[in-house]
Automatic annotation (TrEMBL):
Domain of life: Eukaryota
Entry's Gene Ontology cellular component terms: endomembrane system; nucleus
InterPro entries cross-referenced by the UniProt entry: DnaJ_domain, DnaJ_domain_protein, Homeodomain-like_sf, J_dom_sf, SANT/Myb
PROSITE patterns in the cross-refs: DNAJ_2
PANTHER family: DNAJ HOMOLOG SUBFAMILY C MEMBER 1
Organism: Leptotrombidium deliense
Biased segments, Polar residues type: 377-386
Subcellular location: Endomembrane system; Nucleus
Keyword Membrane: yes
Transmembrane residue ranges: 17-36, 147-171
Residue intervals of the J domain: 61-125
Protein's membrane topology: Single-pass membrane protein
Name assigned to this protein: DnaJ subfamily C member 1-like protein
Length: 386
């Protein structure tokens, strides 16, 4: 690196001179900028600035607003102001902008009553307001800085100026070293590695190189510390959760116990008892019918009764043969078979007078009522079941 510095000594010289020139110009601009506000305060007349602001706010000729000529005297201006003040006073004028008009009227009257301000206003009528080529224009347009903003800007400028000075000193030192090496190279063409390392160490220990490196190392160290803290907090939380799981056994939630519904229980028992009793009654009736059908034969009276019942219960009635069998106390299959035989004409019966008395609907009703009573006798009530 030192050899490169020797070879490019002219370049380093030009850079160092350029940086010194920039630093000097920067300091000059800084001093000028700091002293400029005080200079501006010295040559700016605040009455003129206020007059310029009033002219822009009113945006009307003052003489036309007061309804007087430009050559009017002070007495005429006062007289016109008294008349117009009574007209535009907010207490008497109910317009929305009456207060603004009255305020502008008072300000214009104050300007025209004062001879000095009136002369300045006459000059404004002739020359107009200051344009961008004058300093007053920028003083009125640019926003005024506060103390805090001014302090921040000055501190930033001073910081950059300080770093520029440090950089200029660095390049100056580098230039001196390169000059020394160039002079030594005339006597001694080569340098030892130890001398080169010493020069490098001196350059690396300078403030311009050390300060950014320390700042970078601190940022890296803080980021690593933050990661370590996050890892430690995560591990501690995991250990605490594991310990809580070990110490605290899992509690099983008890299953909700539903209270027994005794009404459904009684209804089931009652239905079961009724079904059993009905089945027993049906079985006994079926057995008795089978026994009767097997033991008894069909008499002529039974055939006449069958014919009457077939007329009483014609075809299309649901459970026709069961009803006829219920009346005749016989098996439905036996009744249907015998009816087919009678219909086919294989069995002949006399039509003479017999002792047979035909059954009517009361028989069937009596049989159903007797069965219901027998069932009700065997059914237990809820009080008996308790």
């Amino acid at each position: 690196m030192a050899l490169l510095d020797v070879r490019n000594s002219n370049g380093y010289t030009s850079c160092s001179m350029f940086i010194k020139l920039c630093a000097s110009h920067f300091c000059f601009i800084l001093v000028l900028w700091v002293n400029l506000p005080w200079r501006i305060h010295a040559w700016i007349d605040y009455e003129e600035v206020e007059l310029y602001d009033l002219v822009e706010a009113v945006n009307v000729n003052f003489y036309e607003l007061l309804e007087v000529n430009q050559t009017a005297t002070t007495a005429e201006i006062k007289r016109s102001f008294r008349v117009l003040s009574l007209k535009y006073h907010p207490d008497k004028n109910k317009e929305a902008d009456a207060e603004v008009k009255f305020r502008n009227l008072v300000a214009v009257a104050d300007v025209l009553k004062n001879e000095t301000k009136r002369k300045k206003y006459d000059q404004i009528l002739v020359n107009g307001l200051p344009d961008w080529r004058s300093g007053v224009y920028y003083y009125r347009r640019v926003r005024k800085l506060g103390l805090l903003e001014m302090s921040v800007i000055v501190s930033i400028i001073l910081t950059f100026g300080h770093y520029l000075c440090i950089l200029a000193a660095f390049w100056e030192k580098n230039y001196e070293v390169s000059e020394q090496l160039r002079r030594r190279s005339r006597r001694q063409r080569t340098l030892s590695n130890q001398q080169i390392e010493e020069i490098k160490s001196e350059m690396l220990q300078s403030l311009g190189v050390t300060y950014p490196r320390i700042l970078y190392d601190n940022l890296i160290f803080l980021s690593r510390c933050y990661e370590k803290l996050k890892e430690y907090s995560r591990q501690s939380n995991e250990e605490e959760s594991v310990q809580e799981e070990i110490v605290r056994p899992k509690r099983t939630k008890p299953k909700p116990v539903e209270p027994p519904n005794f009404e459904d229980l009684y209804a089931r028992i009652e239905n079961r008892v009724l079904n059993n009793e009905v089945n027993e009654i049906n079985n006994t009736e079926a057995e008795s019918r089978n026994e009767r059908s097997l033991k008894s034969e069909w008499s002529e009276t039974d055939i006449h009764q069958l014919i009457k019942l077939t007329k009483k219960f014609p075809g299309g009635i649901p459970e026709r043969w069961e009803r006829i069998a219920c009346v005749m106390a016989r098996n439905p299959d036996d009744v249907a078979k015998k009816a087919r035989e009678v219909k086919s004409g294989s069995i002949k019966c006399s039509t003479g007078n017999n002792d047979f008395v035909p059954l009517n609907n009361d028989c069937e009703n009596d049989i159903s009522e007797n069965r219901a009573e027998s069932r009700n006798d065997n059914i237990w009530s809820q009080e008996q079941q308790k």
